[in-house]
């Protein structure tokens, strides 16, 4: 693939420039204008004309989940009405997708709704299941009894009272673990119950939820919907050349078969290759393997022993000697994978650990290797090009942040699509500031899971606790949290990708030692906390009584469907 910059022609026969406005031509011919050189005046006028150019064609390079979420959201939001934009997506048939991003955040419900996909259709077509959080096994001390939940529900009455210190006083008297004390969702996961019933409307639930899904089928559903319902132009071809103007803006992409495709705004969804942002613009990559050591993953798709086997309604993350194993339940199979550090184990040892975990149903299956280059681009939007998905960066899937970052980026782009080139630089600065912050906070939150461990049995866990590998901001917050529970004041940037309740679930789940259980409660807070704990208990009793088994609900949705909104 080549990159070219097209020089402006210098011919001053203005009648041959029909795109230039009358006032622009007059200023060029004006001998008393501020620029005496007519060529300089022409270039200035052309540049101003380019900056004032409306954005009418959006070109997305690359498919997969990133490309098709982007196409669907922009087309649904901006491809209708008198100011409609044209959306073109170009993907190569020779480049496969990673296809293991099987976990989402609750944000996916809004994304699907905005694109116009029914939840029933999504569940049926994507082999999807409900996700209510994650269970972390053997992360704290490595024993069989070691496990805690990070549910998707916030703690009871979180907007009125911070229950952290109150729970610590309760736990000191032999009370339940934090997730169980402040909410009912961990109990739903333990019981294998769904977050809603068949009578719940689409995208509504008794408990907060996300999804587990088949990533390949998901991209296919998004593509079919975007092309047939939203008018996205789909081109299967290889990009051979990137064309730029003198200022560096991309003007078009040459394709091997179809020739030149021109556009006004370009979105790089070309995955790890990062053809536009990385190769064309040379934007550097910020490596973070000094913080997050895991750089490889082995993935298996494991069938169930029987058709009616329970389907877990949460991600199970089980710590290993040099990493961790994910276990994701879909209706027809489990997605099981080992994320590990090649500096602390060999590929053969990692695969052996994976197969021991997966059991005999994995016999004969070939594990797929995925190399992880943990980190992100130094900037994400330059000129008239923005990177979304793997072209922007990638981190291990410990908290399923990959699809969420795609959604967050596309929300910004679709809801604030620049009407003209002249506002694009302002938007790019806002976007870059926001996403540099998001990536930093995600890296810190993932690292938090490793540094709270009490395991010292292998070099991997010992090295993770080395202060030199811990970001300064995280060390600073940990010192604060030894004396004051995490709260909204600790995270002034809004919105945060991980809010303060998420930090509480991890800190308390892993037994982080604090000194604020002895802090005197504010006036009236003790009674409010007792009411909140009682409300959580009543909600748990009702949910355990009323909600169906997870597989039972998935079967009912396939047969009957959910109530349309």
Cα distance, first to last residue?
Answer: 47 Å
Biggest sheet: strand arrangement: 6-5-15-16-17-14-18
Low-pLDDT segments, ≥5 res = 6-12, 16-23
Summarize model confidence as the mean pLDDT: 90
Rg calc: 26 Å
What shape does the CA trace take?
A: globular
Structural class: alpha/beta
* Number of E strands: 22
Strand content: 15-25%
Quaternary status: single chain
| Number of H/I helices | 18
Largest sheet geometry: 7 strands, mixed
Helix fraction, binned, reads 25-40%
Pfam family, one: Trp_halogenase
InterPro entries: FAD/NAD-bd_sf (IPR036188), Flavin-dep_Halogenase_NPB (IPR050816), Flavin_halogenase (IPR006905)
Protein name: Tryptophan halogenase
Keywords: Plasmid
Question: Can you describe this structure?
Answer:
It is a single chain. This protein is of the alpha/beta class and 565 residues long. Among the domains are: 14-51, no CATH class; 296-371. It has 18 helices and 22 strands. It has helices at residues 22-29, 38-51, 64-78, 107-115, 119-125, 164-171, 178-182, 185-191, 215-230, 275-280, 347-358, 401-415, 424-451, 459-464, 472-481, 500-509, 525-546, 550-560; strands spanning 2-6, 57-61, 86-91, 129-131, 133-137, 147-151, 210-212, 233-236, 239-245, 250-255, 259-262, 265-268, 285-287, 296-303, 315-320, 323-329, 333-340, 368-371, 375-377, 381-382, 385-387, 393-394. A 7-stranded mixed beta sheet has the order 6-5-15-16-17-14-18. A 6-stranded mixed beta sheet has the order 8-3-2-12-21-20. Strands 1-9-10-11 form a 4-stranded mixed beta sheet, with no helix packed on it. A hairpin with a 2-residue loop joins strand 15 (315-320) and strand 16. The longest helix is centred in the last third of the chain and has 28 residues, at 424-451. It is globular, with a radius of gyration of 26 Å. The model is unreliable at 6-12 and 16-23 (pLDDT under 50).
